[in-house]
Amino acid sequence: MLNTTYTPKRALLKLLNPLKRLMDREASIKYIHYLMFFKYLSDQLEEHFTKIIENKNIMLFEAYEDEVYYDLFKKEAINNFGYFLDYDNLFNNILYENKDKRINIDNLSEAFNQISNTANSNIFKDVFDEIDLISPKLVKVNDEKEELLYYLMEIISKFGYNQEKSIKTLFDTSIDYYLNHIKKTWILAADRDVNKLLANIATLNNEEIESIYDPFLGTGVLLENVFQLTNNPSIYGQDINLTAYNMTIMNLIIHGVDYKKLNLYFGDTISNPGHVGKLFDIIVSVPPFGSAYKVPYEGIKNKERFGNLKIGKSISKLEFYIIMHMIYHLKEDGIIATIVNQSALTRNVDRNIKQFIIDEKNYLDAVINLPPQLFTDSPVPTSILIFKKNRSPDDKVLFINAEGECESQRKKNILKDENIDKIVNTYKTRLEIDKFSKLIDVKSIKENEFNLTISRYIDNYKGEYIELNEAIMKKEKLNQKLEEITEKIQDLELELNLK
């Protein structure tokens, strides 16, 4: 029995502990995510149905047995939430149906299948396919599986739907654990501070935001952050990784996003885009740079999304092809805020694309260098690039050097709220601050051969400046002193017969 005073973090560790010997940490956290998600979906229906029969002098199980109420429940559930569960398939009823503290695996599978089979949206149709309740990797003996599932579900049951200690807080804790402790082989997922910075920049002018889009979903935290800062927009996104796709669905639904607002697609964003022709108000992303993902040449050659540029088979960097894809989907008054590897900013990287975006189209609005070591398990130095289509011809590009805006914690740096506020306010006001921010005209960037390396435009040296002649004189004096010391050493060696 779980001590109800347990924090979400302690509960999560208690959940993970028995799974350590059975599967790796990534598989363990995914397994727990599905059970949490099932708990949320079940509680959501149970609370809604309870409100329907409030003051009706009838118990929930009795209402389920009544044909009129049953039909009403099913219609309400599918219309409002996109799925339905029978009374016996609710989380708590599966948990406590047996007094021997075991879960009937067939009944749990039936509940998952009912969610898929009653779904009126693709969001729920296949979401539970990735969890294998009868996998021999779990435990070889069926009785042990049933006892383990009871143990896991009993802990999760202590976190409610609309309570201070809710299933949402437990899920958030598990996402943070995933980001901070599990090596991400399939995506470079940003921690919450980076997601918060991107979301705050992208939503500065959010009065009439109808749509947001992320071409690489990751954990869904970035989209969730943007959604919370806007007025209930539609959410679009895509990912080639099934875990990322499903994790985003779970994350957004648990955080209260209406399933009707979700337009997510499973597949390769570049070679098989799922939202062709759609335009979006806000586009945010942390692309999987530095990962095994490669730009598929056949997916980009001679495509309108890439400006019909002449693109060779030797593709140097991923970022600017993804940026071209995002620009294709951006509304005329929209904004793009995306993370890039700083190596993509240098002069010789994809120069033809940079020239097209910066000089011909004048879309680049800002370059923000981020502090090092912001990403768990990745030393890659990163920047934020911001793009807008509605810039005036004489608008300058804002460069911000925020490499020192962080606090060091253990093996990584984090962005505190004051760091985020300073960066966002500087971008919003477009103020020039000594050694921190500077406005640069496109002509100067062109003269620098489209090199966006921030040191080209912001002098961030904080030491004492010395005039060249003074430096030469100091060097001559040091050389003279070195010669004198060398002569004394030679004299001593002669005296001691060491030479």
Tell me the layout of helices and strands.
Blueprint: H1 8-16, H2 25-52, H3 60-65, H4 67-81, H5 91-96, H6 105-118, H7 122-125, H8 142-156, H9 167-181, H10 192-202, E1 211-214, H11 221-228, E2 234-239, H12 242-254, E3 262-266, E4 280-285, H13 319-328, E5 330-341, H14 351-360, E6 364-369, E7 382-387, E8 397-401, E9 407-409, E10 412-414, H15 417-429, E11 437-440, H16 442-447, H17 468-495
Parallel strand pairs: 1-2, 1-4, 2-3, 4-5, 6-8
Antiparallel strand pairs: 5-7, 6-7, 8-11, 9-10
Helix pairs in contact: 1-9, 2-9, 2-12, 10-11, 10-15
Task: Explain what you see.
Keywords: Coiled coil, Methyltransferase, Restriction system, S-adenosyl-L-methionine, Transferase. The strands form 2 sheets. Strands 3-2-1-4-5-7-6-8-11 form a 9-stranded mixed sheet. The protein has a two-stranded antiparallel sheet with strand order 9-10. The protein is of the alpha/beta class. It is 42% helix and 12% strand. The chain has helices at residues 8-16, 25-52, 60-65, 67-81, 91-96, 105-118, 122-125, 142-156, 167-181, 192-202, 221-228, 242-254, 319-328, 351-360, 417-429, 442-447, 468-495; strands at residues 211-214, 234-239, 262-266, 280-285, 330-341, 364-369, 382-387, 397-401, 407-409, 412-414, 437-440. The chain has 2 domains: 8-181, N6 adenine-specific DNA methyltransferase, N-terminal domain (Ferritin, Up-down Bundle), CATH 1.20.1260.30; 192-456, Vaccinia Virus protein VP39 (Rossmann fold, 3-Layer(aba) Sandwich).
